[in-house]
Amino acid sequence: MASYETSINIAATTDKVWSAIEDVERWPRWTASMTSVERLDRGPLARGSRARVKQPKLRPVVWTVTDLEPRRSFTWTARNPGITSVADHQLSPGPGNTVNVRLSVRQTGPLAPLLGLLASGLTRRYVNMEAEGLKRYCEADAVASPASLSEAHRAPA
What we know:
By secondary structure, the chain is α+β, with helices and mostly antiparallel strands. It is 34% helix and 36% strand.
């Protein structure tokens, strides 16, 4: 098994952070680790929701939500021959008026040790990019004017 986890405190409301996390199609606006995210169904994010995720240097993967507690967490899973990836997104109260976000990914299956060896650096980099991008995005509204937000939310090229 290969796994990685990070957490970050975000100076924003739980509603703001959750809104950003559950709107998976907009993730490429705040993290350069995602090229595109396409929902394969309609309606609010829920158990069974699916999305095709494209990331730089990786093949497109379909993720399926396997667990969801609104405003607290969601887990989604991608299954490919020889490997299953599980990504968790958890919110909890942080110090002061912050929200602690814990992001983790774990991979299991016969190919997990090899993939962990070959791609662990990329996995860590992408998870960290997601955490930092989410923080910038959620905290931008508190300090930026609406006109400057479109630039602040755009992922770097």
